[in-house]
From TrEMBL:
SUPFAM superfamilies the record matches: cAMP-binding domain-like (SSF51206), Winged helix' DNA-binding domain (SSF46785)
Organism listed in the record: Enterocloster aldenensis
Database matches in PROSITE patterns: CNMP_BINDING_3
Molecular-function GO terms, alphabetical: DNA binding
Name by which UniProt lists this protein: Crp/Fnr family transcriptional regulator
Length: 212
């Protein structure tokens, strides 16, 4: 739990105190579960302790569009909980076997029973996460505003710094999720990736990429 951004700088002991003080709830899911439903107001935020999930929208034609993929440590509903009168524009679902911790936003901004520094640190962490998510949304918008499929793909790939001496890096999205992220048709994405590889702009194998 304390290995997440939400609990950065907070000890195990203080985290345990906060969970009790804020009436936090740990949920374990025995099946795929929608934890936030599009069109509803959100009162609680959380963090995925284990497992996988995603946020998504359903368009007028009934197509499901993945917005973000969630993994261990990902926050859930942070932006939405801070705007409690705003209905959620997305749904969030977690997979079978996932565990998540949820905290009421009202408890977060309320007073702690001991007014401890760890509560103030939690609030600072929360604000930092909100700011970071704003930057993530800006990065996606930067991709979507590009005029061509190739420029969208390059804008997305350039977000990832090389992680090895050979200049390769791994993207977190599979082809379907990447197509949805870039608002592209799946086959059009695959076709353009192949063209970019032929043109010597990129190289890739599955989720491993290199930019030239």
């Amino acid at each position: 739990m304390i290995q997440t951004n939400l609990f950065a700088g907070i000890s195990e002991r203080d985290a345990a105190h906060l969970m009790s003080c804020l009436n936090a709830r740990t949920m374990e899911y025995k099946s795929d579960t929608v934890v936030i439903e599009e069109g509803n107001k959100v009162r609680m935020f959380g963090v995925l302790l284990s497992g996988w999930g995603r946020s998504y929208k359903t368009d007028l034609q009934g197509n499901v569009i993945t917005i973000t993929l969630l993994r261990k440590g990902s926050e859930i509903g942070v932006l939405l909980a801070s705007r409690q009168e705003q209905i959620s524009p997305v749904s969030v679902a977690v997979e079978k076997g996932s565990r998540a911790l949820f905290i009421s936003y009202d408890s977060l901004i309320g007073s702690c029973s001991r007014n401890c520094p760890c509560h103030r640190q939690l609030i600072r962490n929360y604000i930092g996460i909100v700011a970071e998510k704003g930057l993530v949304l800006h990065e996606r918008l930067d991709c979507l505003l590009r005029p061509s499929a190739r420029s969208k793909i390059l804008a997305y790939l350039k977000k990832f710094p090389p992680l090895s001496d050979d200049g390769t890096f791994t993207v977190p999205l599979d082809r379907n999720a990447m197509a949805e992220y870039l608002n592209m048709d799946r086959s059009a994405l695959s076709r353009e990736l192949s063209n970019m590889k032929k043109d010597g702009i990129i190289d890739f194998h599955k989720s491993r990429f290199r930019l030239y």
